[in-house]
Amino acid sequence: MNRFQTHIDKIKNYLLAVITLFITFGVNAQFYNKEYVSKILVKKNSEFFTFAASAENITPTDIDLKYDFSLYQTDANNNVTRSNQSDLFFLKGNEKKVLSTVTVNYNTEGKITLVLMLYDSDDKPVGQDRIELSSEKGYQEIIKDKLSPQEEAISQDQAAPQDGYIMNGLVVENALTKAGRDFYKYFYSEYYNRGIQTIKNIVIDEVPGRMRSTRISVKIDDQLLWQFFSQPKKSYLQSMAKTALDRCIAYLQQLQKQKDNTLTQY
To answer: Can you give the residue range of the structural domain that contains 106?
Structure first.
């Protein structure tokens, strides 16, 4: 009898936790991801998913935040296990960064829920995202992927192709010299590591400049966001790449705010 009651109590506790989680996400979703956006990025490999917890500051002000990245796994007997990664971090104005990653094998059994939460210095939740997976078909597949506000706006503004696939933007290189190609390499590395997702193309142009140097520019939609005279020094090019990407992110965030305001007016 005691073992049976213990099993019932475990199921009740699990259901209570799940209900609380859904209520929290459903009722408070409108208050999250307004200034600090949390997003679980997904990458598929040959044998497993890689989930990356990312945070984006869409304000110009630097901020100290805390993230909590949890994985809940439920087996056939409704036993729930939880693994968790949590830490404090610093986010500059208009910066986006990847905080942590976790992998899930396709052959893992049971239901899996990943939850990412962001908290401010007063432990107030300011960002959230959640993904659910199920192995009902014999392998893990994503059954619910909650979009960020930015992606929801994109989906409203752009009809999906017939195959359901939306092409992400490209980083286009028009380099003339080794310095230009090195800048592109450093820029794209930052772009990839920060998990940037946009339908806009970023164009890097290099043209002859003064004396023996060249001029490198970074544009989105023909809008010049950063330009400089090249130098072969690695640290200089890496610094320029980071600054240029920061300008791109700020510009993309500005476009998104304009789109959100337009949608609100209507």
So the answer is: 36-143
* H helix count then E strand count, the chain: 4, 12
User: pLDDT tens-digit profile of 175-203?
Assistant: 999 999 999 999 988 888 787 878 889 99
Residues 136 and 192 in one domain: no
> In 213-237, which positions are buried (b, 16+ CB within 10 angstroms) versus exposed (e)?
ebebbbbbeeeebbebebeeeeeeb
Give the residue among 228, 217, 226 at the shortest CA–CA distance from 249. Answer: 226
Write the pLDDT tens digit of every residue in 4-38.
555 555 555 555 554 444 444 444 444 678 889 99
- Structure confidence at residue 151 (pLDDT): 39
Indicate the helix (H) or strand (E) that contains 186: helix 178-193
CA 29 to chain centre: 17
Work out how many domains the chain is built from and give that number. 2
Residues 201 and 249 in one domain: yes
Contact between 59 and 37 (Cβ < 8 Å): no
Question: DSSP character for 241?
Answer: H
The predicted model gives 194-213 an average pLDDT of 86
- What is residue 210's predicted lDDT score, i.e. its pLDDT? 76
Closest Cα to residue 91, out of 257, 259, 261, 249?
Answer: 249
Averaged over 139-157, what is the pLDDT? Answer: 55
In a domain, 155, yes or no: no
154 lies in some domain: no
What's the CATH number where 125 sits?
A: 2.60.40.2420
